[in-house]
Design brief:
The protein contains 18 helices and 23 strands. By secondary structure, the chain is an alpha/beta fold. The chain has a 6-stranded mixed beta sheet with strand order 10-15-14-13-11-12. It folds into 3 domains: 192 residues, Rossmann fold (3-Layer(aba) Sandwich); 114 residues, 3-Layer(aba) Sandwich (Cytidine Deaminase, domain 2); 124 residues, 3-Layer(aba) Sandwich (Cytidine Deaminase, domain 2), CATH 3.40.140.20.
Length: 507
């Protein structure tokens, strides 16, 4: 493969981390350095000779620094095809010096947006010269080495130290690929900032960090996670997180975020199989586990409260995949860390996206995340009998759980404890029957429980079955053309029913 030796480098970077080592290595290899602005000042301060871009172009930095490198003597030096006679003649005619290494990063646009800066500050972080230099160098990878991020500095140091500044075409092509990844991600971030109200119906997403997973949903499927998991969680210990772990972790986080009281939840296959809210975490765990101790085996555990040792001692008795909490007492961690494969996650205070998307057929669908939370004021009694205060508390609890369970779903709860649910059924009647049988299997009386449905009842069959099981309080969205049939049955049988007007399908 054709090898080229670096002779001239253009350096203009925002982040100066590790730059001194690079500059000193370039200087030791007698590689000429061209620079501008703060980067030039940095190089001069460490005593390395550098040529100012301004002396090359004959123009100073103008317009408050907006225009520094946008000049034919810079871009001509980068884009020139050094083996093409016509390009050689142009370079000689216009006194253009070849540039075969470009080290340029981009203004921190995304970081500036996240910081809450003003629009003017954000606009000034839209890089023009830098992104143009990177694209030009990447386009001409046959002649030019391009470094577009401080993350690539180790590669550059290897080129300078181990290869004495020489590169082959395949190495330059790989660096060009990485550079186009950087520039496309940057442009996508800018577009999405301007399109944050989604006035333009265009789907553009870019996630620059990729983590290969052991496999996808099944061992024969390949899986990759694109995102920054470490922004949301600190992994204290445990094996690598799998595709299915990630799905369950997301479901667990969205569910627990519904609750402000001390709550513990156990999830399996994205559904809660146990959840309870109690004044004391230990009791919340015991009652969550009681909801379905069979399904809890190998599940995902999550709480919104610091985990203490007493609770950890009880949790430790169960085999589980993942436990998530905002914090753990030191002695609690010592208990949970005994089994090294357990994934222990500390959740950081990081806001989650409010827009979701997924691939579908040959395209993508996008929607707002279901963040609607119904309070007591949103619950409209439609029957002669109305719930008591305690029953309203249970209805609020059950409605939160049903919202995060796979449709069709029915949730049965009492005293802010999940006693059973029927999930993912093709019939709402089957979901209810499943929940009633399951409650009985684990020793729960359905009499006195409340029932929540994720969608309306098209027929009175569900309230009829609920009545037979002794369930006398129901929450559902309402909206069926036959609501009256269910309401009349409830009135005849002393059942309180409230409508929310909000459906919570989850497919």
């Amino acid at each position: 493969m054709e090898t080229r030796k670096i002779k001239t480098a253009l350096i203009s970077v925002y982040y100066k981390d590790q730059l001194e080592e690079i500059v000193r290595m370039l200087d030791s290899l007698k590689i000429s350095i061209i620079s501008t602005g703060g980067t030039k000042d940095f190089i001069e301060k460490i005593g390395i000779r550098v040529t100012a871009v301004e002396s090359l172009t004959g123009y100073p930095s103008i317009l408050g620094g907006r225009v520094k490198t946008l000049h034919p003597k810079v871009f001509g030096g980068i884009l020139a095809r050094q083996t093409l006679d016509s390009d050689k003649r142009d370079m000689e005619q216009y006194s253009i010096q070849p540039i075969d290494l470009v080290v340029v990063d981009l203004y921190p646009f995304e970081e500036t947006v996240v910081s809450g800066a003003s629009m003017n500050e954000i606009i000034e972080k839209i890089d023009i010269g830098g992104i143009s230099l990177i694209r030009a160098a990447a386009k001409n990878f046959s002649d030019v080495v391009v470094i577009s991020s401080k993350d690539q500095y180790p590669v550059l140091l290897e080129i300078l130290h181990d290869r004495q500044g020489s590169t082959d075409i395949e190495m330059r092509r790989r660096l060009a690929l990485e550079s186009f990844n950087v520039t496309s991600h940057y442009d996508t971030a800018i577009f999405n900032y301007f399109n944050r109200d989604r006035t333009k119906q265009v789907f553009k997403k870019s996630m620059i960090l990729a983590k290969p997973l052991r496999y996808g949903e099944n061992p024969h499927q390949r899986g990759t996670f694109y995102g920054e998991f470490n922004q949301i969680f600190e992994q204290v210990q445990g094996k690598e997180i799998s595709y299915n772990n990630l799905l369950d972790i997301e479901a667990a986080v969205y569910l627990i975020d519904e609750f402000s009281d001390t709550t513990f939840a156990i999830l399996k296959h994205n559904n809660a199989c146990g959840i309870a809210s109690r004044p004391v975490l230990y009791d919340a765990w015991k009652d969550a586990l009681a909801g379905d101790p069979v399904s809890a085996y190998g599940g995902i555990l999550i709480t919104n409260t610091r985990v203490d040792k007493d609770t950890a001692d009880e949790v430790d008795k169960l085999f589980f995949e993942v436990i998530i909490a905002p914090a753990f007492d030191d002695d609690a961690l010592k208990v949970l860390e005994k089994k090294k494969n357990r994934i222990i996650l500390i959740r950081k205070n990081k806001a989650l996206p409010v827009v979701q998307f997924r691939s579908l057929l040959n395209g993508v669908i996008e929607q707002d995340r279901d963040t609607k939370q119904e309070s007591r004021e949103d619950m409209k009694p439609v029957t002669l009998k109305v719930p008591t205060d305690e029953e309203y508390n249970d209805l609020i609890f059950a409605n939160k759980v049903v919202k995060h369970s796979k449709s069709n779903t029915i949730v049965l709860a009492r005293s802010r404890q999940l006693i059973a649910s029927g999930v993912g059924q093709t019939s709402r009647v089957d979901a209810l029957k499943q929940a009633i049988v399951k409650a009985g299997n684990f020793g729960f009386e359905t009499a006195g429980a409340v029932m929540a449905s994720d969608a309306f009842f098209p027929f009175p069959d569900c309230v009829e079955i609920a009545n037979e099981a002794g369930i006398k309080v129901v929450i559902q969205p309402g909206g069926s053309i036959r609501d009256k049939d269910s309401i009349e049955f409830c009135d005849k049988n002393g059942i309180a029913m409230v409508f929310t007007g909000i459906r919570h399908f989850k497919h």
